[in-house]
Design a protein that fits this description.
two-stranded antiparallel ribbon; globular; 12 helices; alpha/beta; Rossmann fold; single chain; 9 strands; seven-stranded parallel beta sheet
Length: about 290
């Protein structure tokens, strides 16, 4: 399947209606200002299109400017109140602060910040690649901090706003051949939890969303099993619902949520033997970013 096909995957309307009340979501997101990082493909691309349909004001960032310009046109056609695009690398703190300054100068306030930019990766311990380890942590963890951190002062001042991290179910326990990725996602989870506790008295919400496998360019490979794959549009709907409800932690799909909770209960001697067999990973995996 081509990347373009992956990022445009949709649920049939009859199926989508089972998962959300579109009018309720539209009334929530209409006129809200939303930042989405990693918007040039996959989950970020589709979430931007969905929120555009609800009439949100969007600020979209990624490294690939040509993709963002294409998305901007699509979001405007879909009904977005306003769309701004920023060519930005989340690992560059100065650039992310500059994006914040530009948005606050123009909009005055940003209601929701969705830290979606991220990278997957394989890093088998026998061939551990420290460059991949560093890059994975830089994008997934430091990129998260660089995305949400600059907006905290304005939200605290206004006593409102919501910070959202798109993490992973990999955040809850170390998976085979994924030490770097799991560590970065675990860091995201605990970082957002601390922010949530600290910011709650100031009226600011912090949410950490943990998807399973989503149909996207990141999962377009066959190096290990990816059960209960979620179509990208269904994923966008579930994320939008979680944001609207202000869920502090949200795991989906339900099948993977259940498996994740069971995994956390497994004793070490069972986990260490069971997980490599269940994930079906190839024996000749090489370290690489996904």
């Amino acid at each position: 399947m081509r990347t373009d096909d992956l990022r445009l995957t949709r649920l049939p309307k009859s199926v989508a209606a089972c998962y959300f009340d579109p009018m309720s979501l539209k009334s929530f997101f209409a006129d809200k200002s939303v930042v989405i990082t990693g918007a040039s493909s996959g989950m970020g691309w589709d979430l931007a299109l969905l929120l555009a349909e609800y009439g949100a004001r969007l600020a979209l960032s990624a490294r690939r400017l040509s993709n963002l310009e294409e998305l901007k046109t699509k979001c405007e056609d879909a009904g977005a109140k306003e769309v701004r695009v920023f060519q930005a690398d989340v690992t560059d703190r100065a650039v992310m602060i500059g994006m914040r300054d530009a948005l606050l100068d123009t909009w005055g306030f940003v209601d929701i910040v969705v830290a979606n930019a991220g990278v997957g990766g394989l890093n088998p311990a026998p061939k551990l690649d420290l460059d991949i380890n560093e890059r994975t942590m830089a994008i997934n963890f430091f990129g998260l901090a660089n995305t949400v951190g600059p907006f905290i002062p304005s939200m605290v001042e206004k006593r409102r706003g919501q910070l959202v991290c798109i993490s992973s179910l990999s955040a809850f326990r170390g998976l085979p051949n994924a030490a770097s990725y799991c560590a970065a996602k675990s860091a995201q989870r605990t970082f957002m939890e601390s922010l949530r506790v600290d910011l709650r008295p100031h009226g600011v919400a912090a949410s950490c969303i943990h998807p399973g496998f989503i149909v996207s360019p990141m999962t377009d490979h066959d190096e290990f099993k990816m059960p209960f794959m979620v179509p990208v549009r269904k994923s966008s709907i579930l994320i939008a619902r979680a944001i609207k409800k202000g869920k502090p932690i949200y795991l989906y799909p339900w099948q993977m949520r259940l498996l994740t909770l069971l995994n956390r209960l497994l004793p070490v001697f069972v986990y260490d033997r069971l997980l490599p067999a269940l994930t079906g990973q190839k024996s000749d995996l090489e370290p690489r970013l996904l």
